[in-house]
Amino acid sequence: MNHLLNQKSWRFIDQSIVALNRTPLESFAMDDTLCHLVGQGMSDPTIRTWVHNETIVLGIQDHRLPYVQEGINFLEQRGYQAIVRNSGGLAVVLDSGVLNISLVLPEKDNAISINAGYDAMVDLVKSLYPEIQDDIKAYEIVGSYCPGSYDLSVEGKKFAGISQRRIRQGIAVQIYLCIEGSGSERAELIREFYQLSLKGEKTKFVYPDINPTVMASLSEILNREITVYETVLNLQKLIKFNGDMKLQNLSSEETEYYSYYLNRVFERNKKMLNSND
């Protein structure tokens, strides 16, 4: 087990039950809050699981697309909302078959490099799926959406992407795991979004040329139906096996920090989206 995962005590916050009126912006505010709390020694290291209904989470570069509003209109017609996140660079898909895991660690006493944070998440995922752990590779999958050097794949089929957020000496390593459904269908949606948002124009930033065939869900990779629910349970069992774990939501005092970060995230997202008007 990765040394960063060998914590004496873990806090576990499970928000994997989809709430119809909950936006991913709330999840980004929650991770910012946990970074603050964990980084300042006000909370144990924390693992949070979260799921949202149909949402396309745009990256910093996406809101600069020349015809991004047309792309957003297309997504809304397909039943998706669009938001801009505060970590990572390009668009990803969230829905009820995609599980997000946030690994929140402190670096107040010992600095954690960017790669070390990513490696900890890779090792956590490999431990979750021991039957394919030797087949899981971390490298950029060209043709995937939101490509990066820590894309997780099996035999060239990407099922996960990782990003990081750092605040007040706390680090949130965030991963999306495509567990249920079709990975290629999600990729096709993003491919059409970019086509409509670019219309063939050349831009300073090079957006991905998406090939849906390079993406798959873990159910497709394992050739059996697995669910978000069972993955959350397996994650809890894994953490309990390696140390003490407490299921613990925010206290009333911690909620005050959350309100601050939530307001900041909402204001930032509003500003980013309005900049395209």
From TrEMBL:
Keyword Cytoplasm appears in the UniProt entry: no
Entry keyword Acyltransferase: yes
Molecular function GO terms recorded: lipoyl(octanoyl) transferase activity
Protein's name according to its UniProt entry: Octanoyl-[GcvH]:protein N-octanoyltransferase
Transmembrane intervals: none
InterPro entries: aa-tRNA-synth_II/BPL/LPL, BPL_LPL_catalytic, LipL, Octanoyltrans_LipM/LipL
Enzyme class: transferase
Gene: lipL
Lineage: Bacteria, Bacillati, Bacillota, Bacilli, Bacillales
Catalytic residues as annotated in Swiss-Prot or TrEMBL: 146
Record site feature (Lowers pKa of active site Cys), residues: 158
EC number in record: 2.3.1.204
Pathway stated in the Swiss-Prot or TrEMBL entry: Protein modification; protein lipoylation via endogenous pathway; protein N(6)-(lipoyl)lysine from octanoyl-[acyl-carrier-protein]
GO biological process, one term: lipoate biosynthetic process
